Amino acid sequence: MIKFKWLMVTAAITTSVNFNLYAEALTSQIANWPCDQAYLPEVPAAVVWAGPSIEGLNHKWQQDDSIEAMVRRLVAEEYDLEKADGDIAEFAENQQPGLKDQNLTLLFAGVISQMNEQRQKALSGIIRYADGQAIRAEQLSEQLDEMIRLQDDASAEAQRRLQVMQNEMEIKQRMFDERESFIQHLCTRPRLFEEKLGVLARTIAYYVD
Q1: Taking a C-beta distance cutoff of 8 angstroms, is the pair 82, 37 a contact?
Q2: Which CA distances in Å does 158 have to 147, 165, 169?
Q3: How far apart are CA 31 and CA 17, in angstroms?
Q4: Considering only Cβ atoms within 10 Å of each terminal Cβ, which end of the chain, N or C, has fewer?
Q5: How much is the pLDDT for 29?
Q6: pLDDT cut 70: percent of the chain above it
């Protein structure tokens, strides 16, 4: 257990450093990305993986039922990372002598494929959320412009309309601010995927000879 905790800490630190360096090297970001962390569509294997190349292995891990089952287990949202060292060690021990490294590499190929797929869904969700906020911000801006125009209209009808809009604006502004603050919570999700992937990648690589 000491070994695995050391792996988890090392993986989290190293993955964070490597990933940040990789992100900083990219200059283009999508215009509607609301997070401070740079937008990257996927985590490259080279950032987290020190084992053999996985080039050309994108779907080969699905051809072995035991490897696919292990991949699905490791990447499940409810999976307890504290079990990863024991589970991966057992997986490595159960491989035929000449196939252990190959199958561990396939295992990682499956893990990074599925983790990147999950992460991409999270990224898309953040973008949709930010787009919704942009639409709401534009609507609030238009309503504020109308309220300013109504302030210059002394008619009773205009003033009644202004009062109604002021009452509605307080509620809409509060809801907008609450949604805006939630964006920062959403922005933590990609990093959680990156940290989990880093732990799994380095634990798998540990058992490759």
Answers
A1: no
A2: 9, 10, 16
A3: 25
A4: C
A5: 58
A6: 86
3-state secondary structure the chain: CHHHHHHHHHHHHHHHHHHHHHHHHCCCCCCCCCCCCCCCCCCCHHHHCCCCCCCCCCCHHHHCHHHHHHHHHHHCCCCCHHHHHHHHHHHHHCCCCCCHHHHHHHHHHHHHHHHHHHHHHHHHHHHHHHHHHHHHHHHHHHHHHHHHHHHCCCCHHHHHHHHHHHHHHHHHHHHHHHHHHHHHHHCCHHHHHHHHHHHHHHHHHHCCC
Nearest Cα to Cα of residue 188 among 135, 126, 104: 126
Q: At what angle do helices 65-75 and 100-151 cross, to 10 degrees?
A: 40
Residue 24 pLDDT > 90: no
Using the structure block, give the residue that is written with the tokens 């940290």. 195
Give the C-alpha separation, 83 to 165, whole Å.
56
pLDDT of residue 23: 52
pLDDT band at 59 (very low <50, low <70, confident <90, very high): confident
**Whose structure tokens read 């962390």?**
37
Distance (Å, rounded) from C-alpha 172 to C-alpha 90?
A: 55
